[in-house]
Amino acid sequence: MKMLEAKNLKKSFGDNEVLKNISFDVEKGDVLAIIGPSGSGKSTLLRSITQLETVDSGKITICGDTLCKNNDNGLAVYSGKKERAAISRHLGLVFQNFNLFPHFSVMRNITEAQRKVIGKSKEDAESTARELLKKMGLEGKENAYPCELSGGQQQRVSIARALALNPDILLFDEPTSALDPELTQEILKVMRALAAEKMTMVVVTHEMLFAKSVADKVIFMDNGYIIENGTPDEVFNKSTNERTKAFLSKY
After folding, report:
1. Residues 6+ positions from 47 with CB-CB distance below 8 Å
2. pTM for the whole thing?
3. Alpha-carbon gap, residue 44 to 51, rounded angstroms
C-alpha cells in the first residue's frame, strides 16, 4: 500500500526553483532516506509534504487522501481546511532543532497536542507519554524542562511527541545535525528500533551509514532534482551517475 505519493512537484522562491519535477512514493512500513548536499531541496520537499510550505504545481497524496493537485492551468490547488487538517494527522514531524516548548515540562510537551489536537483526556495523554518516555529511555524525566536535558534527550522527547499522535508516517528533517557524534548514535538507535517495528518513515539525513543499512529506498537529490532513486545497494554500490558517485565519495 502506498502511504505517500508525490507527482511532478515544483516549488520556487521568487526566481529560485528549489523543487524541479519531483516524483516518488513510499510504501507502508518502508524507510525512505533522502540524501544530498545542502541546498538541494531536501528540507523544502519535507516541508511541502507536511504543509509548512505549499508547492506551485504537482500532486501530493497521503494515505489515499489528496492534499493537492493541479487545476486546468497546471497550478496546485489544495484541499479544504478540514481535509488538510485531517491529512496532517497522518504525519508526525521531527525537526533538526527539537522545537520543544522551553516553558513546558517534558510531560506537557508530549501531552499538549494529544489533548488539543485529538481530544485525549489528561489521564490518557499522560499514560501515552509515560509509555513513550520509557521506550525512549527517558523514564523519570517527566517533570524536567528542555534546558535541563542534553541535545540527544531533547530529540528523543521530540520523537516521543511526534509518536504520541499515532501518525501513519514519521518524517525526520536531519534529526542528528545539531548533535555531537555520541548523541547522534542515541537518536539513530531509536530510529533503527522504529524501522524494525515497520514504522513508515521519510528521513532527510547526512548519516550515510544509516541510509545504507536501514533504508529500504534512497533518493539522492541535487539542485532541486532527484538524481537517483533506488535501493541502498543500487544507489551506494551500483550507481553509474557521476554526480552521485562524487557526492558519496566524500563519505
Report:
1. 53, 173
2. 0.94
3. 10
